[in-house]
Amino acid sequence: MLRPSSSLLRRGHGPLWRNPTVRALIVQIVLFLALAIFIGFLVHNTLANLDARGINTGFDFLDRRAGFSIPQTLIEYTSNSSYGRTFVIGLLNTLLVSAMGIVLATVLGFLIGIARLSPNWLLARLATVYVETFRNIPLLVQILFWYYAVLRALPSPRQSLSLFDTFFFNVRGVVMPDPQPLPGFTATVWALLLAVVATVAFAVWAKRRQSRTGQALPVYWIGAGVIVGVPLAAFLLTGAPLEWTIPEMAGFNFRGGVNILPELVALWLALSIYTAAFIAEIVRSGILSVSQGQTEAARSLSLPGAITLRKIVIPQAMRVIVPQMTSQYLNLIKNSSLATAIGYPDIVAVFAGTTLNQTGQAIEIIAMTMAVYLVISLTVSFLMNLYNARTLMKER
Amino acid sequence: MNDQSAYRTEMLPPRQAPDQRRGIGGWLRANLFNGPINSVVSVVVITFLAWCLWPFLKWTLFDADFLGSTRADCTGDGACWVFISARFESIVYGFYPEAARWRVDIVFAMMAALVAWLAIPRLPYKRWVGLFALVGFPVVAWILLSGGYFGLEYVPTRAWGGLMLTLVIATVGIVGSLPLGVLLALGRRSKMPFVKAVSVIFIEFWRGVPLITVLFMASVMLPLFVPGNVEFDKLLRALIGIMFFWSAYMAEVIRGGLQAIGKGQNEAGQALGLGYWQRTGLIILPQALKLVIPGIVNTFIALFKDTSLVLIIGLFDLLAIIRAGLTDANWLGFSTEGYVFAALMFWVFCFAMSRYSQYIERRLNTSYRT
Questions:
Q1: Which domain does A38 fall in, by range?
Q2: pTM given for the model
Q3: Which residue of B has its CA nearest to A371?
Q4: Across the interface, do B224 and A363 touch by the CB < 8 Å criterion?
Q5: Smallest CA–CA separation between B138 and chain A, in Å?
Q6: Where are the beta strands (DSSP E) in chain A?
Q7: Tell me, what's the ipTM?
Q8: Same domain for A39 and A150?
Q9: Which of A154, A301, B94, B289 is deepest in the core (most CB within 10 A)?
């Protein structure tokens, strides 16, 4: 009688080290020991060095007074605030420039990606030149260029370039009107929230209705009307409770209005323009990845062009576009750390820069900074995997 | 036979191509003005080009100054490229001692020859040249650049700078991250849970953080990791950080290639009685690496661009040298020229690499597309 082959393996012919299972175990044990020894060596050296140099350890420093000022703070901060507060300030500034960059880069990237596919020869070439130029120049060079060659070359506040006498551009940044909400403005905010919730509910209902009866409703138009109209109505009914302070020249500087740092503008422009070049390529490849047959099939069913685009081409292109796009967004967030080169107060410049120099607690601070980016990256990849699992092509 | 045959007996005279398709006018009509929307778009684009391209050309070329050696030679309204030409030596060599610059030239020449040899598909002995580029060349380049052996004057890495330093960082990054990336990619696909876990953690960690923080870590934390009395070169610290960082990206690219190789390849190798390293080295990797050459080149491009980040930790690469030149009291106010030139230098390298990667993609397109 023949033995089943698995028992042949288990009985182990030949020497023990020839057995794959044993060998895998040995390899892993060796790797584990090597890593453990290496890490132990590093920890031992680090502790000895920290001790020898008299550097504190632990996170007590977060409660101590920072004593330096930060040019852009989204929440309350003075030089009497703690080092822990500088971490939050830097993080918020990073998130601000990232969010601004993501919006502009997406808009610009979609426009340029579509322009590259344009039947107009000139427009397509122009878009190609844009992509090939900006993605092949290091982001740092672009940031420095925008900051030093463009924004630093603007005139002094007295000779500001102005747009409609409400926006002013000068060497200290952009000054623009500052909206001041008066009491009663909260009604508008609530109306907006309500409108969004109502629109989502309506869209869900309309979709159910369509799959039940086959009748489609103009969800986009109704939704857009509700989201714009309801808050606008609330705003006007409560008597337009918003006051714009228009910047005015007073002495050597502007009074009123908000001043946007030139560092923020330079970083924002450079990040958006650089990332848009990559997004444009992603959009282009996404649209090209939808096979011609899909459009032709839609046409043979006599679907109109707009519906073909919205219901056939874009959903399939999105499957290609979205995962790559999120990785570009992540790159943008990580690249925003180049802020430190021009002194925009992001988390790296403020926390891993000034705070690190003042406290000397390199290990804790670098670890916290890296943890921020890691958490953002891992969260986004997790969400991305969920999305991928949902939109994966349903194959037979 | 009567002459009312069903077919012609003589050829028709050739007709002229439709009028609209011929000549420059026809081309314009076909590509730019075929329809009202396209015509409007074309006019807008042409206006835009005239509005921004012409001043740019005037500034960079027609009104610019090219000749001279001092600031006084900048007389035109446009760019003053004298700023670049006066500092060209330092842009290329950094602070490298003048008497020893021939050594840098030799390394440049060797590098150019090796890259050309590897890049041109027709040349033979790729494997040996590649092996030399990965193993022999770094040693030779190190001996030549650093000196201290064979009677060559010792040049500390502090004195390295400019284009030369950029190329050194890029080369070490590429040469170091590729093999490390291969190992990590294999580790990530390994069936051994511990090996796999270590690889995944390593890759995801480096991919999750920005290079800046890695460089900060390399410059601030690495000295704490070694025994107190060991001198740790600043350039070396940056190089270690860059190598680890990019090896994670390389690993993901290579993993893509490994996944594209059918299971049957591995099983066929097993059936022939080949061991793991034989299967990997002789069957899997040659196919997988060939598949992802474009991805690898794209990673090289990203790595090359990001070498400019070392300026933040105080190394004088191409960009940092130009930036340092801008603070020279004799040459204040030329930042536009400086940054445009830096952009151009980086662009030339990156564009060449991206073109090469597209060329390779087209060449390899034959066998793997269905």
A1: 30-55
A2: 0.84
A3: B209
A4: yes
A5: 25
A6: 161-163, 167-170, 173-176, 178-181, 242-245, 248-250, 253-255, 258-260
A7: 0.84
A8: no
A9: B94
